Amino acid sequence: MEKAIGCYHASIQELIVIDDLLSALVRIEGRYTSIKRVREKDANFAFQLDASMDLALQVRMLSLWSSDLEV
């Protein structure tokens, strides 16, 4: 089992999240982030972050997406 992302320093968390997001772009499930389709026929997605992630990093990541995303 992997450590919770909150166990790492914020600068390391950023690198992990960047890796996860790049993976998500090619439909590979991330370790600490995921992008899920909300409705199969719809273009709505939910962006989910590990709750132990640095709060400032969560805010920055969610600012990349619309306001109706799930944490």
| Helical proportion, percent range | 25-40%
Helix count?
2
Largest sheet: 2 strands, antiparallel
Strand count = 2
Measured by DSSP, the beta-strand proportion falls in 5-15%
Shape: globular
Low-confidence stretches: 67-71
* Helix vs. strand class: alpha+beta
Could you give the order of the helices and strands?
HEEH
Output the radius of gyration.
12 Å
Number of domains: 1
The average pLDDT value, as a whole number, equals 79
Distance between the termini: 21 Å
What is the strand arrangement across the widest sheet? Answer: 1-2
Explain how this protein is built:
With 71 residues, the chain is of the alpha+beta class. Helices cover 35% and strands 14% of the residues. It is built from 2 helices and 2 strands, in the order αββα. The chain has helices spanning 10-25, 55-63, and strands spanning 33-37, 45-49. The chain is globular. 14% of the residues are buried.
Task: Please outline what is shown here.
With 71 residues, this protein is an alpha+beta fold. Helix content is 35%, strand content 14%.
Task: Outline the fold blueprint.
Blueprint: H1 10-25, E1 33-37, E2 45-49, H2 55-63
Antiparallel strand pairs: 1-2
Short descriptors:
single chain; 71 residues; alpha+beta; two-stranded antiparallel sheet; 2 strands; 35% helix; 14% strand; disordered C terminus
